[in-house]
Amino acid sequence: MQRPMQRGQGGPRGDRRDERSESGMIDKVVHINRVTKVVKGGKNFSFSALVVVGDGKGRVGFGSGKAKEVPAAIKKGIEIAKKNMVAISMSGTTIPHAVLGHYGAGKVMLKPASEGTGVIAGGPVRAILESAGIQNILTKSLGTANPHNVVKATFDALQQLRSEAQYNTLRGVEEGAE
Fold it and tell me: How far apart are CA 67 and CA 73, in angstroms?
């Protein structure tokens, strides 16, 4: 008999992990890959970890760490992700407008959702949005299922977001002039 899954135990792939670090950041492991290099004496195994880090208040980053052991690869990924954090525009608990992000064969569509909808997203996109602190959003991942390309396409979409105030300054519209 299979026992029910508990929160934090990972999904069917077993590579999903999230936690708040001592600095208050949300760390999520998106994907762990085992790499084998065949050499004269046998096989050398190493691991690469794709990690997403966010503060839950609109700042998020991703990094890929490589090492001989999984925990070391995750730690390196977290350090790289912290260095590559970007701020994203939010409108309350959702995003200001719909957007489509591209990277390679990956496309990710993000649409704002009303209060109470929750995060309707799968895999890597969900990890990024939860780390960023977005609570109501509709998404669709199109094209590739490669986690690296999906993560980069999601970041492309998030960096295209502009708030209403940012659009007004770009257009030269002053507040209250209408």
Answer: 5
**Cβ contact 100:157 at 8 Å:** yes
Q: Which two tokens stand for residue 59?
A: 């700042």
The number of domains in the chain is 2
Helix (H, G, I), strand (E, B) or coil at 63: strand
pLDDT at 10 over 50: no
What confidence tens digit (pLDDT) does each residue in 41-79 have?
Answer: 999 999 999 999 999 999 999 999 999 999 999 999 999
- 4 located within any domain: no
| Other residues' Cβ atoms within 10 Å of the Cβ of residue 101 | 21
Buried b (16+ CB within 10 A) or exposed e, 50-86: bbbbbbbeebbbbbbbebeebeebbbbbbebbbeebe
- Taking the C-alpha atoms of residue 95 and residue 67, their distance in angstroms, rounded to an integer, is 36
User: Structural domain of residue 71, as residue ranges?
Assistant: 17-86
Residue 153 to residues 10, 85, 124, 174, 175, Cα–Cα distance (Å): 24, 15, 10, 33, 33
Instruction: Find the CATH number of the domain harbouring 66.
Output: 3.30.160.20
Residues 77 and 117 in one domain: no
Residue 11 — very low, low, confident or very high, per pLDDT cuts 50/70/90? very low
